[in-house]
Amino acid sequence: MTPDLDAIVTDIIAAMAQEDDRGTVASYIPELAKVDPAQFGIAIATADGRLISGGDADIGFSIQSVSKVFALTLALGKVGDQLWDRVGREPSGNAFNSITQLEHEQGIPRNPFINAGAIVVTDINLGGHQPRVAIGEMLRFIRYLAGEDTIAINEAVAASETATGFRNMALANYMRAFNNVRHPVELVLGSYFHQCAIEMSCRQLALAGRYLMLDGGHPGGGRVVSPRRARRINALMLTCGHYDASGDFAFRVGIPGKSGVGGGILAIVPGRASIAVWSPGLNTSGNSQLGTLALEELARRTGWSVFSPPEEGD
Ligand code: GLN
Questions:
Q1: Which of 102, 198, 246, 296 has the fewest CB atoms found within 10 Å of its own CB?
Q2: What atom in ligand 1 is closest to the CA of residue 262?
């Protein structure tokens, strides 16, 4: 049965407006602390080409770690499976910015979706160029995925994190000691902070994620990645996309998802939908409190899950 997405989105927006526990807006990046926690947006791009959205779905927010999905896709395009010599593929069970694990693992981060892993991925994407070249490539890639030319970087957010990102500097320097960061740390982090500061609305983010619901195909024709690569990226989102809360997200929501400390989550229902939710308040693991709740409700109402048996006609 086809779910009535318009009705479900309307109900979810009403339910989220009633929620008192909205989490806490990230404050370790000072610029993000200014964002109003009362906001909530949702957008669903379906495989049959519809876009259902509601709430604050057109307001731009800092995608932060959701950018790690697009950065990984680009890096795999550059170096293929060699990437896995430098980054693992296991859930970390630790916070997104954990330092201790790196020492045990000799500078090889657990997965590409924790900060350390994404910094190595950024190092790969730099490929001997200046940060502005790598950032330009990333922006063009995301604009092409979303089909939206207006997507841009919020320079104030990038500057704010550059001024305060001491933990990420520690992670990058530590990995440079193991030669798992190959470019100068300032260049890698310059690129990393700017990609985190890309601003998108839920509508744009849902559109950008469509290749992952379409088994790697671009909705406008052609291919972004092979089916195998799209499935692997989805697998990593399911197992590692919410840091030490990835197991809980899989249990509650049951579809691949990637969160960011800006309060956004990109979630993929293979073959059916690319979903973006946004609400700036975070839970203790740094994932959007209402975003997670909304996805849980959406999955419950639609029956969407990567663990459900195929429907007739599939
Ligand atoms: N830019 C943020 C950081 O490096 C991204 C973290 C996140 O979204 N979880 O701390």
A1: 296
A2: 8
| Residue 168 Cβ contacting ligand 1 at under 6 Å | yes
Measuring CA to CA, which residue among 174, 173, 191, 185 is closest to residue 122?
191
Quickly tell me which residue has 């979630």 as its tokens. Answer: 267
Q: Is the pTM of this model over 0.70?
A: yes
Q: 110-120, pLDDT tens digit by residue?
A: 999 999 999 99
CA of 141 to the centre of ligand 1 (A): 20
State the residue for tokens 């609400």: 279
310 CA from centroid of ligand 1 (Å): 36
Task: Quick: pLDDT tens for 169-212.
Answer: 999 999 999 999 999 999 999 999 999 999 999 999 999 999 99
**Catalytic positions:** 65, 68, 192, 243, 261
CA distance 214 to 103: 38
Q: Work out which ligand 1 atom sits closest to the CA atom of 286.
A: 9
Would the CB of 285 count as within 6 Å of ligand 1? no
φ, ψ of residue 191 to 5 degrees: the values are -70, -45
Least Cα distance to 202 among 267, 283, 137, 289 occurs for 267
For each of the domains in the chain, give its residue range(s) and CATH number, in order of start.
Answer: 5-64+201-302 (3.40.710.10), 65-198 (3.40.710.10)
Give the other-Cβ count within 10 Å of 178's Cβ: 14
Amino acid at 179: N
User: Which of ligand 1's atoms lies nearest the C-alpha of 260?
Assistant: 8
